[in-house]
């Protein structure tokens, strides 16, 4: 949890929430982590990754909970 989030303005809170979604989005299953997680890595085309990242930053997925971005 981020300390002091209640003291932030609404715009800053929105930035924090989107950043947390990006953090979870970027922590998806990777090939090198398979030996630790037992989960196969996945390949996602670069253009799809960039489009999804931009959509998160632009607020297109604000209606999804943070956990929806973590596998």
Question: Could you explain how this protein is built, in words?
Answer:
The protein is mainly alpha-helical. The chain has one domain (5-69): Bovine Mitochondrial F1-atpase, Atp Synthase Beta Chain, Chain D, domain 3 (Bovine Mitochondrial F1-ATPase, ATP Synthase Beta Chain, Chain D, domain3), CATH 1.10.1140.10. Helix content is 45%, strand content 0%. It has helices spanning 10-25, 34-37, 46-57. The longest helix is centred in the N-terminal third of the chain and has 16 residues, at 10-25.
Summarize the helices and strands and which ones pair or pack:
Blueprint: H1 10-25, H2 34-37, H3 46-57
User: What's the oligomerization state?
Assistant: single chain
Q: What is the helix tally?
A: 3
Report the radius of gyration as a whole number of Å.
14 Å
Q: Which fold name fills CATH's third level, the topology?
A: Bovine Mitochondrial F1-ATPase, ATP Synthase Beta Chain, Chain D, domain3
- Share in helix: 40-55%
Order of helices and strands: HHH
CATH class: Mainly Alpha
CATH architecture grouping: Orthogonal Bundle
* Strand count: 0
* Unreliably modeled segments: none
Write a brief caption for the model.
Helix content is 45%, strand content 0%. The chain has 71 residues and is an all-alpha fold.
List keywords for this structure.
71 residues, mainly alpha, Bovine Mitochondrial F1-ATPase, ATP Synthase Beta Chain, Chain D, domain3
């Amino acid at each position: 949890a981020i300390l002091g989030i209640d003291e932030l303005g609404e715009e800053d809170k929105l930035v924090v929430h989107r950043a947390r979604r990006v953090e979870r989005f970027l922590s998806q299953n990777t090939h090198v982590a398979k030996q630790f997680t037992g989960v196969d890595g996945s390949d996602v085309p670069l253009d799809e990754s960039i489009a999804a990242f931009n959509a998160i930053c632009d607020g297109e997925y604000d209606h999804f909970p943070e956990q929806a971005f973590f596998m």
